[in-house]
Amino acid sequence: MLLSPGSRPATTGSINNRYSVNTLFSMAAELDVEIEDDLAKAQRRLRDLKNKISSQSKKNFVLERDLRYIETRIVLLIQNRMALEEQREVERTLEEAEPSTSPSHHIDDRKLQHYSNLFFLLQSEPRHIATLCRLVTLSEIETLLQTVMFTLYGNQYDTREEHLLLTMFQSVLAAQFESATDFGSLIRTNSPISRMMTTYTQRTPGRAYIKKALEDCIGSLIEHTDLDLEINPVKVYEQMIDQIEADSGSLPEHLPRGVVPEVAAANEDVQAIIAPRLTLLMEIANGVLAAIMDNIESVPYGIRWICKQIRSLARRRYPDRNEDTACQLIGGFFFLRFVTTTLTAPNTWQLCSEPPSEHPRRTLVLVAKMLQNLSNKPSYTKEAYMSMLNPFVVNNKTRMNQFLNQLCEVGDFYDQLEIDQYMALSKKDLAINITLNELFNTHALVLQHLDMLAPSEKQHLRIIAEELGPAPAQVSRQENTSVEIPLHSRWERPVQEIPAALVDTVSSSDMLYMEAKSILVHLIRSLPRAAGRPPYDLTAIAERAATARDAVLVRKGIKVREMLRELAAQGVTDPSDGYALMRDEVAAELAHLGSLRERVLAETSSLQAVSRALGEQQEYMRSQLEQYKAYLHNARLAAARKERSGAAVGVGVGVVSVAGAKSPVPKAVALGPYRFSHAQLLQEGIIAESRVPDNRRVNIYFNIFSPAPSTFIIALHYKGREQPIVELDLKLDDLLEQQQENKHMLDLEYVQFSVPKLLALFNKTFKLR
Fold it and tell me: Could you report the per-residue pLDDT of 461-480, keeping only the tens digit for each?
């Protein structure tokens, strides 16, 4: 079994003295004793919650991937640049994401055993995955990332899987540093490796840190919807002359339109507008930076460990450069690949319920640019106006470098990984849950790159790959069922008896003492009423277990009773003082487990909030997909009408015009009107802003109806008046286009609607027909 650099392979005959042998005994004892005390129940609940979060994270990753894909296609469709066949292909991509539960592809026992060996090998020897990640293309990386991040190492709270994943990162980074010819491109280039690093930061622990550090400051910022902090002189100049023209009806000759940036920046009025904005922007950026730095202890260990590897590799690769070199690379990862992505899209990180409005969104983008400039010193040539914020960079550079170096101050995990790998051989329930397409895709990639992964005929990976034979083809989404693959090592013997593995390194009396103590702790946890309170009567506890109705307890009771006698005979413990030494150590261990229960409960409470947030994100993305599916469906229907009639039509139109005549198209049934009060729409956030006086709102209501597919009419009424005060005729594609362009407000003279929530209302009410 190959482990990370710097670690020593575990064997079944010996184990490194650095490890806590008592920990091994405790782990071994838990293999066959099912404890039912409060701690064990709390730990099981926590374990189940962590598994649920891992599953939720994987589903959300797939949904995010689908949304990214479909959003790019929607733009083409809006611009009428997508062929009908491509529309159908996109629609097929949006078929129901949950596959059928009935298996559609049988894997025989022999092949299942090979897959079991293959994935155990890939998981426990991450160098193979590291090589694959370097070899695949950008178009192939998404599916591989899904398998690596959310299946192979999908349990984000399992130390063994997490540490193996990090050793894979170490291998990838080492190769990246070795092959890079341009220092500046090491972290910043868009490559499969950079995509992999970004995906790692977006897993649940990274999201939890971002939420804790930035939710409050981002939330307070986006509330100020009218706060315009634009500092681009050209944009400020255009805004200024638009206002002058609106106020006076004309423009002075000395203020022409379409000026170059240098002319706009030289205008004194523009400078006067920008100056206070610069001050406020730097105050906001300082607040965001402080929130990031003050929560450094909440940064996930894995992210900090990757920072540590980047610093170590930078120092070795560029020994002649100063300390700023390493800090720039660390900053490129931590800020560019992690923090600034949350500032530019806070709603996708559940930091706000919907995308920020125009002005807060622009402010967040500018703050993200400032932090990026501070952390990795990019060039200002593309956006010269950002140089006006250089004082922020100068004033915080030393502070930033200290923070980036502090991120790296975490310990290594190689000792723990070796013991985890050792214990993995004894686990009977080691398994992964994987979809058929992930299984077949990984199989295909291994075969495609086998000469690079395992050039020797004697290497285990090549042996398994050749026995597996060709990879099956990808199946449809409906057939893409999940299967559980048990993981077994074909070349390592399972650990049967922990003491046998320690015989060369620990004395027999020490082994006997530690095993007896571990069993007694488990017996007291299993028999809390019989054990009573400290000081414990160890002999009585052993006797009570030996005469219990539970066969496992009987076996343990008899065994520990004989162990106590043997320890007394060897002079290690003294029965005359009630085995005081062991009794005190058992009590101390149980006290530690008591405090552990409180920590488990606190972690459970915290992760329940994480699980709820992931569920909300999943519901939001599913609603987005439903809207896109409806849009594409209507686009296809419109295109079909066009093919039949030979005339251009709009999405959702019920009558097709052909050379001035009307073609018969099945008439759509109008739906509605449905009535909604002003208070109801305001409470649900559908009305984002209202200019209706408070004393009149009780008399305001809205009628919403759909005269034809993808067409909606909103009418604002006042009680007692038959005719509406104002009406708004909407098309579904117009609303989707607004959302695609980040225009999230729709004006109806007296109120402003939230576009995403209005779309959700249409979907709920009319099923977006």
Answer: 999 999 999 999 988 877 88
